[in-house]
Design goal:
Layout (H helix, E strand, L loop, with lengths): L7 E4 L2 E4 L10 H5 L2 E3 L2 E6 L4 E4 L2 H14 L4 H22 L5 E11 L10 E10 L8 E9 L20 H9 L4 E5 L12 E6 L2 E4 L10 H14 L3 E3 L4 H4 L4 E6 L3 E8 L2 E2 L6 H16 L15 E4 L3
Helix pairs in contact: 2-3, 5-7
This protein binds pyridoxal-5'-phosphate.
Pyridoxal-5'-phosphate (PLP) binds next to helix 5.
Length: 317
């Protein structure tokens, strides 16, 4: 979906042609990757003729937290986030009806070397939006990477800052070289953390297990939603605890979840096949998650509390 950008994007408060949104090659964002960002999905709801932007509030709240954690100036951050909130609706309407979209609201430092003092820093913001590909249903082949997730004492996993994603470059290459789809990273204490874009869940004898935030995972919004769905709609216990590497290989089922991946079964890890892929729990949680995203109605009964921050953008078409 990223190969074919649409003609329009949103930049510093207005819609602009895609090619117009540029910064200098020596800018702070280009040099040190000083940008905080979110990945959002807007699901097209044909019956309602509108897009449902899943958990917009939660994503913008996390964007503000990322900005705070890398010390972006507070007042300017708040101004840009208010603009971004409106910008999401403007861009969704501009890109058009009848398709699912993936959106990247981003806040960046244009000028100011390692800048943090408000008078020294110039912030910019943009939203890039792409028609979303349907998520593949094929179970994923994963490896456990030889690279580690950065600890909270380096660049915290709680911060979605562009520069931090360099730590996923080599794991992704490692996976590709080994013919796999995705790399699972361990943390510096050698227990399971996450992938470069998704939380890891295992199912063991009817209990669902996922690493806690303290084990080096992003506070994933899909992770929170999936935990809620499992406990309420599906009625299974979910335990947040450390997972030793070997437990990956003996789980009944394993799946990844994140905004981009939605809920995806893991088929193999380091060449060992999972007992079931997708297993019954993975299938149930995937169905429940996608139904909540597609059918959620502004926090109404159909969505339980899952899409309570859903923002609806009616199509103009
Ligand atoms: C490192 C990392 N982990 C997990 C996730 C999943 O987070 P979310 O469910 O909020 O999309 C993402 C995606 O943003 C990510 O970049």
């Amino acid at each position: 979906m990223f190969d074919t950008p649409p003609s329009v994007m949103w930049w510093n408060g207005r819609l602009v042609p895609w090619a117009a949104a540029t910064v200098h090659v020596t800018s702070e964002v280009a040099t040190r990757g000083t940008n905080v960002f979110e990945g959002l999905r807007a699901y097209w709801q044909p019956g309602e003729r509108r897009h449902a932007v899943v958990h917009l509030d939660a994503h913008l709240e996390r964007l503000a937290q990322s900005a705070r954690l890398i010390r972006l100036p507070e007042a300017a951050t708040a101004e840009h986030i208010a603009l971004l909130r409106t910008g999401v609706g403007e861009l969704v309407r501009a890109i058009g009806a009848a398709q699912d979209l993936y959106l990247r609201p981003t806040l960046y430092i244009e000028q100011g070397r390692y800048g943090w003092r408000p008078e020294k820093v110039k912030l910019g913001s943009y939203i890039a939006g792409y028609p979303a590909d349907p998520t593949p249903t094929r179970p994923m082949d994963c490896i456990v990477s030889s690279w580690r997730r950065t600890p909270d004492t380096a660049v915290s996993p709680l911060i979605k800052v562009g520069a931090a994603y360099q730590a996923f470059r080599l794991p992704r290459i490692e996976a590709e070289v080994q013919g796999a789809d995705e790399a699972i990273l361990l943390n510096t204490r050698d227990t399971v953390a996450e992938t470069g874009g998704a939380a890891v869940f295992l199912v063991r004898s009817g209990t669902v297990v996922t690493p806690p935030l303290a084990d080096g995972v992003l506070d994933s919004i899909t992770r929170r939603t999936v935990i809620g769905l499992l406990r309420t709609s599906i009625g299974l216990p979910v335990i947040e605890r450390s997972i030793p590497r070997s437990e990956l290989y003996i789980a009944d089922e394993a799946f990844l979840c994140g905004t981009l991946d939605e809920v995806r079964a893991i088929g193999t890890i380091d060449g060992l096949s999972m007992a079931a892929a997708p297993g019954p729990v993975t299938a149930a949680v995937r169905d429940a998650y996608l139904a909540a995203c597609r059918e959620g109605k502004d926090g109404g009964p159909a969505s339980l509390h899952l899409i309570d921050t859903l923002e609806a953008h009616r199509a103009t078409a």
